[in-house]
Amino acid sequence: MLRQANSFLDRLLDRAQTGSLWLARAGGALILLTVVIVTIEVVTRQILGRSAMHATEITGYIMAVSTSWCFAYTLLCKAHIRIDALYLNFSTRVRAVLDLLALLSMALFCVLVVGAVFDITSHSFSVGAKANTPLATPLWIPQSLWLAGLTWFSFVVCLLTLRVILALLKGDTERVQALAGSPTLDEQIEHENREAHS
After folding, report:
1. Is 130 helix (H, G, I), strand (E, B) or coil?
2. How many domains does the chain have?
3. Other CB atoms within 10 A of residue 140 CB
4. Contact at 8 Å (CB) between 129 and 140?
């Protein structure tokens, strides 16, 4: 039974990895869009003496949305910043427990954040709130895109947490390390070598 659950969760994590990659790519494309918008803004200010776009407002929305869309991929690739000076000195079992605690903390944080953002988005939609700017953007539009990224991230965090719990129940600390552990310097070098040769 535990083996089937692990196999099912591994398949889900593989699909989550693919979905997260595409969301991160979309987030990256949005960041490139901000470059285009800011360039147009600068050029039109120089040539026309006024702005043809409202770059500050649009790029603010884009940064919030694209960031939330990249969170899950960053988590699954273990690309986020970690302070692991003490962590790497502990035994594999202690590190596995610490990884689980970190994931549980993140899952709780995600649930609270998604709940708060959902309340804000639904309120903006119900009252027809608009930005106090010349564009008068209906706020629920960028907030919904932001919420979508945060919701996906929460789903991935909960999925990863569940898989780590099952690995710990099985006593498979190596799997916990592979899923959620902070990579050692040797593992990072090996990963960089693989990336360079692929």
Report:
1. strand
2. 1
3. 20
4. yes
Q: Tell me, yes or no, whether 198 lies in a domain.
A: no
Helix, strand, coil shares of the chain as percentages rounded to 5? 80, 0, 20
Q: Is residue 56 part of a domain?
A: yes
Please answer whether residues 164 and 177 qualify as being in contact, where contact means their C-beta atoms are separated by less than 8 angstroms: no
Could you list the residue range(s) of the whole structural domain that residue 163 is in? 2-183
How far is CA 5 from its chain centroid? Answer: 25
User: What residues contact 64, with CB distance under 8 A and at least 6 apart?
Assistant: 142, 146
What are the pLDDT digits (tens) for 86-114?
A: 887 888 899 999 999 999 999 999 999 99
Is 168 a domain residue? yes
The span from the CA of 44 to the CA of 8, in Å, is 54
Q: Compute the radius of gyration of the chain from its Cα atoms.
A: 21
**193 occurs within a structural domain:** no
Query: Per the confidence metrics, is the pTM higher than 0.90?
Result: no
Distance CA 90, CA 96 (A): 10
